[in-house]
Amino acid sequence: MSDSTVRRPFPRRFGVVLAAVPIVAVGLADATIAVHTAHPSAHARPAPVASASPTPQSSTDAQFSLNDAETKRNAALRDLLARRTRAVLHHDEKAFLATDDPAQPQFRAQQRREFEALQAIPLASWDYDVDLGLGLPPSAPTRRYRVPTFAPAQFAIRYAIKGFDDKPSTITQTPTFVQRRSGWYVASFNDYANAGNPSSLGIWDFGPLRTVRLGNVLVIGHPQSLSQMREIADVTAASIPKVTAVWGRGWARKVVVLFPATQQELGQVVGDTEDLSQIAALASAEIASCPGSPNPVGGRIAINPRNWPTLSSLGHRIVLTHELTHVASRADTNSCMPTWLIEGFADYVGYQQSGLPVRVVAAELAADVRAGRVPRYLPPNRDFDGASKRLAQAYEGGYLACRLIASMIGERGLVRFYTAIGTSHDTPVHAVADAMRTYLHMTPAQFTARWQRYLRTTLS
Fold it and tell me: Measured on CA atoms in the order 328, 451, 336, 391, is the torsion positive or negative?
């Protein structure tokens, strides 16, 4: 999926702590930043080449012949994609399958399952963004068709969910089109996977779907998960006012939550190839590259079904409030913003009204402080990596930094501080320094010293 994927780790003291405290390290770590461009791509692609054609005998005549062949092919493919779009939006399975290669029965069966799953999602729009002027070189799998093929170098599905998406999201794919005697068809979406161009997947690629709608919350999952989906809808709907109370009303106050069937499915849906075994939930959106305003598209929350049942009801509330904070603040969160502020602010909101003592929320960092190991600097971005040994301390340090800022300039001041950095067109270092000077009347070094003192007095 092309997104700013936010990863939520479980505490390392898994078995002991979860029995008494539902979640300790509920901060999120940004795993990927998906840049929304005219032709978004989540994967590296080889340099595109012109589509293969017979070697011309006469340069002038062949040029006209080549252009004519490409023009006819492109017209046929545009017509195919238009028919495919209408079929999805009008729930016409026969028309949809008519665009698939009749010589690929397994592919057609997979496409039928995908189409049936899609019918559960209330789509406002569905179409394709494709550059038919550039094609990828033939791959070993495409040679098996023994007919002319074409694989666009740039291809994406664009879709919007009715009532939730103001702008369409994109899913980059690499289809292979084949030319049979009766015309052009879609034959595969996997022929270029081994060449570094796999197709991204939607939750509809993994079996039948059901939805649960509760006010401004839409949960999408599989039939066997309906009871959990209803609980997630309840908790998410109840958490929206809590986020709004801190962030304000300047966000959509609605969200789509995905509940995959397995952890593996979660990774494929969100496009995260890292280990998700310690992850409870993810938040994602397509955002523009920094610096400047992110202009987010398609905010989603995705739940890890493997770990979700291990959390208590309080843990569920903290996790979803935290995730919703990312959704609410995404328009003011650029991709080069310091992670301690992004995650610390989401933790600040997530733990509001939780009743958990600060020393419990920041248990790992408190142990360090009591042992005389006070951090020398604010948590660097590298400490938020899922493999970092300082992962829990990084989240807790960011949380306490935001808590300190709120104690200095108030909650609204914290929000203004966050927004100033997240929408700055300056470099991250200068954006942070300017915001600290403007709102805290401190240099970064002075704030760090103040934060260290705060850790000692709060956690000792």
Answer: negative
* Six-digit token string for 33: 């930043």
Report how far apart the first and last C-alpha atoms of the chain are (Å, whole number): 43
Rounded alpha-carbon distances, angstroms, from residue 296 to 20, 106, 285, 353, 415: 37, 37, 6, 29, 18
Cα angle 146, 148, 151 (rounded to 5 degrees) comes to 110
Q: Do domains 5-38+206-459 and 59-199 have the same CATH topology?
A: no
* Torsional class of 248: left (φ above 0), alpha (ψ -120 to 50), beta (otherwise): left
**How far apart are the C-alpha atoms of 272 and 264, rounded to whole Å?**
10
Predicted confidence at residue 271, as pLDDT, reads 85
pLDDT tens by residue, 423-436: 998 988 999 999 99
Q: How far apart are CA 414 and CA 216, in angstroms?
A: 26
Q: What kind of fold does domain 5-38+206-459 have according to CATH?
A: Neutral Protease; domain 2 (1.10.390)
The string of pLDDT tens digits covering residues 255-277 is: 999 999 999 999 999 888 777 87
For the chain, give percent helix, strand, coil, nearest 5: 45, 20, 35
- Which residue matches tokens 């800022």? 405
* Single-letter amino acid code for the residue at 294: P
Q: Which residues of the chain are modeled with pLDDT < 50?
A: 1-65
What are the residue ranges spanned by the domains of the chain? 5-38+206-459, 59-199
Q: Is the peptide bond before 291 cis (omega within 30 degrees of 0)?
A: yes
Q: Is 59-199 a domain of CATH 3.20.20.190?
A: no
Residues 361, 32, 207, 156, CA torsion sign: positive
3-state DSSP call for residue 152?
A: strand
